[in-house]
Specification:
By secondary structure, the chain is an all-alpha fold. The chain has one domain (4-313): Farnesyl Diphosphate Synthase (Orthogonal Bundle), CATH 1.10.600.10. The chain is 70% helix and 1% strand. The chain has helices spanning 8-19, 27-37, 44-55, 60-85, 96-100, 102-122, 126-148, 156-180, 186-212, 222-225, 230-237, 243-253, 262-271, 274-293, 300-310, and strands at 89-90, 93-94. Helix 2 crosses helix 6. The longest helix is centred in the middle third of the chain and has 27 residues, at 186-212.
Length: 322
């Protein structure tokens, strides 16, 4: 994201707070925990939490504990996801289970999730604690559904349900918690929740699009892994796809074809308008997210959130880095 420097100050503040986390665990878990947390990332969820709080006058101490909780829970689930998906790398570095072993990685993920809830309690706001607990369960349900539907066809609505539970729900919580740090107003809570949910769904569709538009054969794509994505669903449903291409795509998705041709998969996605339709769907959710922000008065924080949404449309191109 080339314009992300405009939010650099906020991002650096988030990183500074996260780098000073007191893990309160033995080095056996602290070392892989720090490896997971300090390994990069855009810190989108903490940024959203902070900016939403600023829009309604949230205090720094409560907000910091809240966004630390979000990032701990996010990274704890990523460790577990990488084990389930058997991913070898994340953000260009070995995954935690590759570097430290599977058993240690599972315990590290558990530790981060537990520590995240501890930080949630430090906010002193039972609504924040309850929301994060509910969100953690949603994320587990999302991973369970994704695992169940691996190499199985499903509808667009089922796909949206999965990405909301697995990914969008934490964005929803990030925005809502930002609001809860300063206000108990139910209308404010609902607008922030809607914003975060739509933001999160748009973000995950974008992530799937980047995967579909990348033909790098050194990595296994979602389609090869048998994971549902919007481009795959749209391609299979398209009346533009011929039988040969449809059978090939289904065989790859179902793990029946060992000869993987990434250029061919990319061609099918393009020729069936699966990419263009997915981009439109992503923009629809991003537009709804922007609409949710219109409830709030104009401010620098609102401008920054709109900027994050605008960044979705930049650098989205074939063979762009993921």
């Amino acid at each position: 994201m080339s314009d992300f420097y405009k939010l650099r100050g906020k991002q650096e503040l988030v990183n500074k707070v996260i780098e000073n986390i007191d893990f309160k665990v033995d080095a056996l878990l602290e070392i892989p925990s720090k490896y997971a947390l300090i390994g990069g990332g855009k810190r989108l969820r903490p940024l959203i939490c902070m900016l939403c709080a600023e829009m309604v006058g949230g205090t720094n101490v409560i907000v910091e504990d809240a966004f630390v909780a979000l990032e701990l829970i996010h990274n704890g689930t990523l460790i577990h996801d990488d084990i389930i998906d058997e991913d070898l790398a994340r953000r260009g570095a070995p995954t935690v289970h590759v570097k430290f072993g599977g058993k240690r990685a599972i315990l590290t993920g558990d530790a981060l999730l537990s520590l995240g809830l501890q930080y949630a309690t430090k906010t002193g706001n039972i609504k924040i604690v309850r929301l994060l607990s509910e969100t953690s369960l949603k994320m587990v349900q999302g991973v369970a559904l994704q695992t169940f539907y691996r190499r199985r066809l499903a509808s667009e609505s089922k796909y949206i349900e999965i990405i909301y539970l697995k990914s969008g729900s934490l964005f929803e919580a990030a925005a809502a918690i930002g609001g809860l740090s300063a206000s108990d107003d139910e209308t404010i809570f609902n607008h922030f929740s809607d914003f975060g949910r739509n933001f999160g769904i748009a973000y995950q569709i974008r992530d799937d699009l980047q995967d579909a538009m990348n033909s790098d054969e050194s990595r296994r794509s979602d389609t090869v892994n048998g994971d549902l994505t919007l481009p795959f669903i749209y391609a299979i449903e398209s009346n533009r796809i011929d039988e040969e291409d449809k059978n090939y795509l289904l065989n790859v998705f179902e793990g029946k074809d060992e000869k993987i041709d990434y250029k061919k998969i990319q061609r099918i996605f393009k020729e069936t308008d699966a990419i263009d339709r997915s981009i439109k769907k992503m923009k629809d959710y991003a537009a709804m997210s922007k609409k949710n922000l219109e409830y709030f008065s104009a401010s620098e924080a609102r401008e920054h959130l709109n900027l994050l949404l605008d960044l979705f449309y930049k650098d989205l191109a074939y063979d762009s880095p993921i």
